[in-house]
Amino acid sequence: MTFRQAVLFISTLAAAGGSQVAQAADRPNVLWITSEDHGPHLGCYGDEYAITPNLDAFAERGCRYEFCWSNFPVCAPARTTLISGVYAQSLGGEHMRSQVPVPRGFRLYPQHLRAAGYYCSNNVKEDYNVVPEGKVWDDSSRRAHWRNRADGQPFFAVFNYTISHESQIRNEIDDADRIHDPAAAPVPAYHPDTPEVRKDWAQYYDRLTMMDRQVGERLQQLEDDGLADDTIVFFYADHGSGMPRSKRWLYDSGLHVPLIVHIPERWKHLASADYQAGGTSSRLVSFVDFAPTLLSLCGAAIPEAYQGEAFLGAAATPPREYVFGARSRMDERIDMSRCVSDGRFVYIRNYLPHRPQGQYLQYMFQTPTTRVWKQMFDAGETTAAQSRFWRPKECEELYDLQNDPDEVENLAYVAEHREKRDELRDALVRQITEIRDVGFIPEGPRLRWAETVGGSPYDFARQEDEIYSPRASHFVAVEATDPTSPERDYFAMAYRYFPREDLALYWACNGVLSRGQERFHQFHDQLRSVLDGELSSKASPTTRIVAAETLGKYGDSDDLDASLELLGEFADIQQHGLFTAQAALIAIDELDDRAAPLRDRVAALPLKSDEVPGRMGTYVPRLIEKVLADLDAMTE
Q: How many other C-beta atoms are found inside a 10 Å radius of the C-beta of residue 279?
């Protein structure tokens, strides 16, 4: 029996005894203090512009982790990974936002802690992309608190602070309440240096100071209750800065978060060798590691299905070599990228390179920085580093955080960095294969296919490779969309490697779309057959929409007419559902003035459907609003 198996066996016996066993074992309490939408922009992380005295003092007692990633640069999939101990792209819940069932027989970490006798409270945000089975928390509300537990019962408590959220950056505050001088604000190389941008960055830091006060009050409350010596405390943020090109993007600025852990003297035997009280740890950690670490600290069994590695407690593992990130649909816009880092270099693979980083997101454009940045780009007033965000993506990106912390110099195609690029690329492919990343399956089809096995996307992806192969999917997606790949017959290649015909057609069509006019005529007939439903009766609406966008953008008038007819039909959310309508409206938006004949038809589309979950109900209305605004502007 291995050491970890022994720990799991003992923990399982303890869990069977319920709360009385938990009390007898004299386990630590654990408090997680989380804040939203910010990176390690704290005084204790060396940021001289930041004013964060409470967290700075806390860091003097705890261990500051120098490289913690959130795995996702936006809240819902990041929190899905936290609550499950499984990468959200493995669960099929990597989109912002989505709603998928948990795998059969799967339990989230609070359910394991509750079974082990812990009182588990969450105040208050959940925002998970998975639908759990059974009760998760003892209390998840604005009243949730460790004070509501039974006498002597160990607790696990989460308190989440929203004052630093993206939305708070753009709220007006009185000049008298301003804390940071905009003139001294640090402006990264990818942002233009304007008064609007400086004001936003200053207000971002203002909100961090306000959050710091709230954290100080919570830590004082723990002291006042006489629990500080019995409680292990984590402080972390849910992903990177809420400023544009940080939140939602796979740069270090979108994934890197502060993590400070304090282990009281009583529980110092639960620290790992790299934990330094009052110091730092260079160990790479990420959100997928938090659930197994928590269970390890509390003496509870770590499920085999959990994909993270415990970095503290009895079941702590050796440090990991890499951390991983993922980006998929962000609100109303479809995208797909994956990344990996060794702590110094960040490698990003973009699977839909024809979509710019700066796709229009209605929520993001409420921030003044976003608007002025786009206006300056349109006017030709941005630098090369500032312009890249608004142009089609490069298929591969590689950045050296030591020499280029703003990540504006792409080294992926520089000969002297080829070895590092290939190392990280290989690590990413291994991870995609091991966790069975379902991101290569479009959102609508993946949910339908999961229903065929009576389970979740996670369950579907764990059938034989003849049903779904993540490694083959990655290969075909790369070969189809990367201009440095050999010239191929995308359709023949996709059929050869993809076990499912619709998935083969989807990536073949994206390959032609990403190459543009260059390869269009070679594959015109196949595209037209996909659009007309002749090449395969199995082609999903999502796949036919990609063919329609390509034909509408590069074809003749007959192709355009056929494309607009199909897109107009599929844009109806009541008739075809959210994911089909969303994809169709994006394609219409991408066609610009060629979509003008659809203007009145789009204006008459229904805005909602009773079958769409409320958390995703704004996406189609936002797209319709954007399409109409653009088409109307073209006719003025």
A: 12
Q: What is the mean pLDDT of the segment spanning 490-498? A: 89
Amino acid at the residue 450: A
Residue 345 exposure: Cα atoms within 13 Å on the Cβ side:
18
Angle at 334 between CA 330 and CA 339, to 5 degrees: 70
State whether residue 613 is helix, strand or coil. coil
User: Other CB atoms closer than 10 Å to residue 445's CB: what's the count?
Assistant: 19
d(CA 6, CA 445): 42
Q: How far apart are the first and last CA of the chain?
A: 75
Per-residue pLDDT tens over the stretch 337-381: 999 999 999 999 999 999 999 999 999 999 999 999 999 999 999
Which range (10-14, 189-193, 344-348, 388-392) has the least confidence? 10-14
Paired with 262 in beta bridges are 233
Is the bond preceding residue 30 a cis peptide, omega within 30 degrees?
Answer: no
Beta-carbon neighbour count of residue 387 at 10 Å?
16
90 near 458, Cβ under 8 Å?
A: yes
Distance CA 437, CA 550 (A): 27
Please give the structure tokens belonging to residue 109.
């970490």
Q: Report the 3 state secondary structure along 194-220.
A: CHHHHHHHHHHHHHHHHHHHHHHHHHH
What would the 3-class secondary structure string for 132-186 be?
Answer: CCCCCCCEECCCCCHHHCCCCCCEEEEEEECCCCHHHHCCCCCHHHCCCCHHHCC
User: In terms of Cα–Cα distance, which of 606, 579, 536, 45 is closest to 281?
Assistant: 45
Token readout for 596 is 């003008």
Question: Cα 322–327–330 angle (5° rounding)?
Answer: 160
The CA distance from 534 to 436, in Å, is 31
Among 566, 188, 570, residue whose Cα is nearest residue 373: 188
**Out of 75, 120, 298, 509, which one is annotated catalytic?**
75
Tokens found for residue 511: 């390959």
β-sheet bridge partners, residue 339? 325, 348
Q: Rounded distance, CA 625 to CA 612, Å?
A: 18
Beta bridge partners of 390: none
68 catalytic, yes or no? no
Model-level pTM?
A: 0.95
What is the pLDDT of the chain when averaged over all its residues? 94
CA distances from 141 to 211, 222, 541 (A): 20, 19, 40
Give Cα 151 to chain centroid, integer Å: 39
Alpha carbons 201 and 182: distance in angstroms, whole number = 7
For the segment 381-413, what is each residue's pLDDT rounded down to a tens digit?
999 999 999 999 999 999 999 999 999 999 999
